[in-house]
Here is the input.
Amino acid sequence: MAQKECSMAKESGQPLVDKLREALMKYWMMAHTCSPQFVMGRSVTCTASGALCLLSAATLAEAMVRFYVMRGSFEFCKGDSDYKWSINLVLLTQAVAVGMGTIAPAMRWFLAINFRCPTRGRKKGCNSDYKLEEYWIKALVEMKECPLSNIPIHHPRCRRILHDAKIKLLNVCIGIQAGIVFMSKVIRFVSVYFMGPESPPNYKQDLSRFVLHLEGEDALVDLMMKENRDATDYWWRKAKKRQPKHLMELLELSRPSEGFKGLTEFDSFKVPPLDTEEAPNCWSLSLVTLTSIAFAVPNIDGYSIKHLITGVNEGLVYVRSIEHMHGKLVNNGKAADIVWLSVELYHRWLNVDLRKLSLQGKSTKEILEVLSDSAKNIFMEFKKNNVNMCLMDSPSKWPIKVLAANSMYRISQSLLLDYKDKNYETSERLFEAISVMVSDILAACLTNLQCFISIKCSTSAIEEREESVRHAAHVLGKTEKVLKLLHQKSLPGLTPDQMAVMDEWRSLYKLNSYLCDTPHSELSSPTPREVYLIID
Here is the structure.
């Protein structure tokens, strides 16, 4: 239901962030109210157990006060105890144990009292408060109706006697269960009547359809809605205070009007593969490889490099989440993490010292050639020593070091191909071009944030759903400005599943480039046994 309403909201003119906030509110209401801990905590038996625990703690406290203050009141235990001095230690240990064991039940009791407070003065439906809900005895009733198929007795009379005995025993159990539930409801009623202040419901948006409640809890819907509706707003406001400002500045360089052109510029289709198959491109690995090359560019001031690294570091947090959502290219993601750790902490790419390379007085072309040759040597050494592995395994299963080397080789070669045409001779021009490519890749990847937030809320196990919605609200708060920035930009006609895959973007751009370069007459004049696209 939440997904349906969220999809209907997309058709309205409501801002994207507001739509996501409302969706999170609905997901949180469902996730929290169906949480096993919350369902058990507000049940009538938990209320009764909490009240009984408080009563036992109060009884022990009263006995301790009388023992130490009013010793004459204990007429039945005059004289010295056989435990002597240790009686105080026993009493203290018992008091601590009872106190610790009372905390959780007491909290559940206060929670249940709080939820039942609005029903204190309610006359209508008072009898329904003592009605035995079906779920309390459903399992016992089903057991009563089931035959005794596992007992190896074939005589009809014996089977009938056993079946009748089973029914009588289960009837007793049902009666005991009903009695326990009834007494628990009496205890809850007394607790609410004497302890609970009545409070009217006060809420802004009607989310009652998203409150998952048990039979007999209709009166609690409004209160549960009021108590939990502001939770996502709290996490959103808290995360909003820590916006990734360096990432925002980096995303300003992206070129959505050109279809995020950097997605194809950083890895040219003209570069021949090092093996018969080509490894798939990965968002994070491409980003860290480009940033590694930028770090090695000479004569670049430290502030610009630090700004780029900080922006990429802020973006990688969300890039990794999007890649985990897709669930593929695990080795590529590990390669990106290892390379980035080395670049960020030690300024090294695998076995190449990037800082030392940038200070050797080499030209930008020579630096690109050094990085390309180093990567090619690593790949060829692996290919030489592991011929069978290279042929049998798919490229996505290559070792982490080989995937990193393949990425560095292709990107360095792509930059060398455009070296003269795009004037990469100057360090500033090469660094600027790499920064724009990084921005395009980040922007294209982060267009999946909206899909990530929706999937994060709806695909988790029921035990983890609360934490998932909380994390989604945190991501929304931190990336609010990023979402607003990217929402203003035009996006390609890809499905959500395709947008999460980098190579799908590149394939679409390649197809569009081919169609633009092909004369219209060739597209509109089909020959036998061939199918052509006709672009109007």
Summary: The longest helix spans residues 156-195. The longest strand covers residues 348-349. Residues 118-126, 199-203, 520-536 have pLDDT under 50 and may be disordered.
